[in-house]
Amino acid sequence: MNEVSLIIDGKPVQAEAGATILDAARGAGIAIPTLCYHPDLEPYGGCRLCIVKVEGMRGMPTSCTTQVTEGMKVTTEDDEILQARRVVVRLLLADHPSDCIACRANLDCDLQRLAHYLGVREHGLIPLERTGTIDDSSPVFIRDMNRCVLCAKCVRTCDEVVGAEAIHLVGRGHQSEVGTFLNTGISKTVCESCGECVVRCPTGALRFKEPQPVCETEVKTVCQYCGTGCSIRLGVRRGRVARVKGDRESPVNRGQLCVKGRFGLIQYVNDPGRLTSPLVKRDGRFVQASWDEALDLVAERLKSYRGEEFAAFSSAKVPNEDNYIMQKFTRAVMGTNSVDHCARL
Prior knowledge:
Blueprint: E1 3-8, E2 11-16, H1 21-27, E3 53-54, E4 73-75, H2 79-94, H3 110-117, E5 134-135, E6 141-144, H4 153-162, E7 168-170, E8 177-179, H5 196-200, E9 206-208, E10 217-222, E11 231-237, E12 240-246, H6 259-263, H7 265-269, E13 279-282, E14 285-288, H8 291-302, E15 312-314, H9 320-333, E16 339-341
Parallel strand pairs: 1-4, 15-16
Antiparallel strand pairs: 1-2, 3-4, 5-6, 6-9, 7-8, 10-11, 11-12, 13-14
């Protein structure tokens, strides 16, 4: 693609034509604070924290919505820009709950990090009381609009990423909040409980009902709930799976997960009754065996079955290629068309 040359904070930068100033700056290792921006979503320009100065351009445009042009000269930080950003953060803090220690998002909150980054210790304004909706009707997450900063990440995620459009910005002015149609509980909407909105929320306005503990290690694997092949990262704490995240590097799901992948794994993976090794029946009792021993036994037993004595049952939880091999094996090797699949049930 064509590239354009520009100057950011006195540093020559090359960027793809059509890229935004924010993309160009981050590509060059120059930090610009944001709150409503997310790489999975269309630029929004709502928080006004990524404002910059562009030579020859009036005012301070948002870097996430302004495209680069040839020869553009950009200033990402000076006293005036910093002051404007601090005012934005103070205004957000003025009607935001101050019980950070009690908040589930404490130490994992973008607003908290921005206040620290910009050196805002107190907002210095008269607090504005706002009574927002608290909705816990979802089986997996809670909506607390008292902590919402109206970045609209959740709304845009539900629309642009998931396509469910279960929530929208409702109300006007200071009474604006993220809500549902006719202000019903989220469980009565088309919400899929996938949790994509929750993982993108920058504050504690959306939080999972189950705690998301800090994990010691992270293991990359593939979700076993269907044959799509979504990559996941399992957080392990004291030898047990404690949390599940999507893998953003995966070309299959790009970090996205469905309700089963995000919430269904932990319970069955940690279940004490889950089989973790093959079992072979000896003297009327099932005992543990190695994979080589179990597969050798299966291969030996299959030799005595042919034609209609044999039937195969496959699964939707494996890739299409495995299902193809299963039906090919059943028809070509075992000589029968008695093959079925759990997706038919």
